[in-house]
Amino acid sequence: MKAVALLGLAALAAAGAVPRNATAAEAQPRIIGGRPATSSEFQSTVFLYMYDGVSSGGNVCTGSLIAPNVVLTANHCLYKEGSSGLYERYVAADFTVTTGHAAPDLSAGITGGYSVSQVIGHPGFTMTNLKNDLALLILSRPVPSTIPPIKIYQGSYTTKTPIRAAGFGVIDPVDTSALPTQLMVVDLALGSSSFCASIRTKYYPGTQVCTDGTGGVDTCVGDSGGPLATPYKGDYALLGLTSFGLGNVCAMSGNPGYYTYIAPFLDWIAQNANLNVKDIAVGTPSSSDSDNSDDDDTTTTTSRSRSRTSTSRSSRPTGVGSDDDDDGGFSGIPGLSIDFSAIFGGGHGGDDKEHSGAGAVRAGIVAAVGAAAALLF
């Protein structure tokens, strides 16, 4: 999503809840406090580039293959700021999906990759509080069988359950000079329901989880939509996806990251992606509706009945509206990204398509970018 004015960026910083997507030329090294992914882990994690149609600029997010032709990502990654200042949704042709751990060289342009034939956002998504923040991208062709999709975890968990995040986001939100090289991972810890709610009043324990706010480790800008996974029978299973963080600086002690909890949405995912739940999920589902417990030794369980959808009452584009329990967190300026299209020319690939960029650097905009990065992160 694009926020081209520093005034808008300041409003977002004041609001406190910051979506963790990024723009193409903003892509710096990865996840904060983590390490490069090994060749055998998170093979299902993909790099998402969304071409915004302006000077070959675009946004960057992360996603997970849950089937050979289906990517699960964050719903807020589907939006950009239009010329009128209102948020507009990307169309399928704007997306390029790349596989593998190596990050594309965005300054040289993206060639190849996978195009997207259909974009499906959850109808209950609200940008004002990032509720129901998940979406599906249907690829125009499946990935090879050598790239195994990740399964969705629908079993029980506790605050002691180990979790690991992966993504193509920043590791140093202040240093905007280093370009990315590969996927990064970081080990995190789940926060209790009461902790998550104490930090953010509009926390939805049925469909969100948060981390415990340990300093020095976090997901950040560019990681949006990426996996929050837990070990399962020698592999990883998808517990959540990166949604947003609080505070102006990623990885600050006491500022947790918030993640869409995926199991409650299994029926919606299966129906809209033409998949069977039994083929994409692992773990034993529970009929309990309990949420994150404050007792580390008490099991947290999930019911998919919580995936009931709601409809936005806003006149803004579908999925960008507010709902009755909106806390006004974004004050009408829901997204975070800086327009880097004038800094780097970017190419937009996806099968046989490509857009070439000018590659020009404008010193004034570079200065603005540095100021914005210092303000927000």
Automatic annotation (TrEMBL):
Please list the coiled coil stretches.
Answer: none
Q: Which GO terms describe its molecular function?
A: serine-type endopeptidase activity
> Which superkingdom?
Eukaryota
Q: From start to end residue, where is composition biased (Low complexity)?
A: 299-321
PROSITE patterns for the chain: TRYPSIN_DOM (PS50240), TRYPSIN_SER (PS00135)
Q: Which residues form the signal peptide?
A: 1-24
SUPFAM superfamilies per the record?
A: Trypsin-like serine proteases (SSF50494)
Q: Where is this region: Disordered?
A: 284-328
Q: Which residues form the Peptidase S1 domain?
A: 31-274
The UniProt keywords, alphabetically, are: Disulfide bond, Signal
User: InterPro entries under this entry?
Assistant: Peptidase_S1 (IPR050430), Peptidase_S1_PA (IPR009003), Peptidase_S1_PA_chymotrypsin (IPR043504), Peptidase_S1A (IPR001314), Trypsin_dom (IPR001254), TRYPSIN_SER (IPR033116)
Tell me which Gene Ontology terms the entry assigns under biological process: proteolysis
Per the UniProt record, one Pfam family is: Trypsin
State whether keyword Disulfide bond applies: yes
- Gene3D superfamilies for the chain: Trypsin-like serine proteases
Q: Which family does it belong to?
A: Belongs to the peptidase S1 family.
The name this protein goes by in its record:
Peptidase S1 domain-containing protein
